[in-house]
């Protein structure tokens, strides 16, 4: 487990982080969400040792995180850190060697990642000649080449087309399935909802909401949606605050079992469930509170 505990960081008079805490367990994909300037990148840089916190701790498997443990992590910064005049396969293998792999191991891992990320036909191309989306795939391969124990990724899906998003999303889920904790930030909230087990929302340097996707949705459930196969208008009969959405009834502040009893007596109930908000709706609600 990777734990980020009570991080504080100031840049002059600006408070960047004000008690940020989050965790990712083995096999868990955690989405880190926030507006620009909320503190996501600062948190990740501190976790990877790029920045020093004013106070707080980064803990891995119960002990303070050190340099040797970080060597076994995979980190993808938001700004690309590639060498443009190296060939793609050589670039990936080079970073593998920097992580302590033998040349043969690094080349084998690079070839496997190029295949997984659909880049095998670009292995001999210079990085500078790749599209921005393919450069992003190479950046991910660099973070994966040494078979990391933990992944920390800052905006890994930025600028990708839908096919590339699917390829990279599968790579992250595969790594989590192999037991690695994965933390990634993104402004693409539909991806957060689709790929993540848990979500952490940060605003102005503070964690303002966190939990599994299901927990966050359950907290925000407000409306019961009911569809009934009947010609009768049930607006005045159903308890609580009732509005119409086409043929559906939206009911709030009510006893759901009483709603079901009345609806079933009026006709065949074809839909009866609480509307669950999307992660995007939860995010907008959280940051405007």
Automatic annotation (TrEMBL):
One of its GO terms (molecular function) is ATP hydrolysis activity. It is a peripheral membrane protein. GO terms for cellular component: plasma membrane. InterPro entries: AAA+_ATPase (IPR003593), ABC_transporter-like_ATP-bd (IPR003439), ABC_transporter-like_CS (IPR017871), ABC_transporter_ATP-binding (IPR050763), DrrA1/2-like_C (IPR025302), P-loop_NTPase (IPR027417). Keywords: Antibiotic resistance, ATP-binding, Nucleotide-binding, Transport. SUPFAM superfamilies: P-loop containing nucleoside triphosphate hydrolases. Belongs to the ABC transporter superfamily. This is ABC transporter ATP-binding protein.
């Amino acid at each position: 487990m990777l734990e980020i505990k009570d991080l504080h960081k100031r840049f002059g008079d600006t408070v960047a982080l004000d008690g940020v805490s989050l965790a990712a367990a083995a096999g868990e994909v955690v989405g880190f969400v926030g507006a620009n300037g909320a503190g996501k990148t600062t948190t990740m840089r501190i976790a990877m040792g790029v920045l020093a916190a004013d106070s707080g701790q980064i803990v891995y498997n119960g002990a303070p995180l050190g340099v040797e443990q970080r060597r076994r992590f995979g980190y993808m910064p938001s700004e690309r850190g590639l060498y443009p005049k190296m060939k793609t396969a050589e670039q990936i293998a080079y970073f593998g060697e920097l992580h302590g792999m033998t040349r043969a191991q690094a080349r084998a891992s690079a070839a496997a990642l190029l295949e997984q990320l659909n880049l095998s036909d670009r292995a001999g191309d210079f990085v500078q000649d790749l599209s921005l989306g393919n450069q992003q795939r190479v950046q991910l391969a660099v973070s994966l080449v040494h078979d990391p124990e933990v992944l920390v990724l800052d905006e890994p899906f930025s600028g990708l087309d839908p096919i590339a998003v699917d390829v990279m999303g599968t790579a992250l889920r595969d790594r989590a399935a192999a037991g690695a904790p994965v933390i990634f930030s993104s402004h693409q909230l539909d991806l957060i909802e689709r790929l993540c087990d848990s979500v952490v929302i940060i605003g102005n340097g503070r964690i303002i909401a966190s939990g599994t996707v299901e927990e966050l949705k359950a907290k925000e459930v407000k409306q019961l949606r009911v569809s009934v196969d009947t010609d009768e208008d049930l607006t005045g009969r159903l308890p609580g605050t009732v509005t119409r959405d086409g043929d559906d009834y939206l009911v709030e502040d009510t006893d759901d079992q009483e709603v079901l009893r009345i609806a079933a007596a009026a006709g065949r109930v074809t839909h009866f469930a609480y509307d669950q908000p999307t992660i995007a709706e939860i995010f907008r609600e959280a940051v405007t509170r």
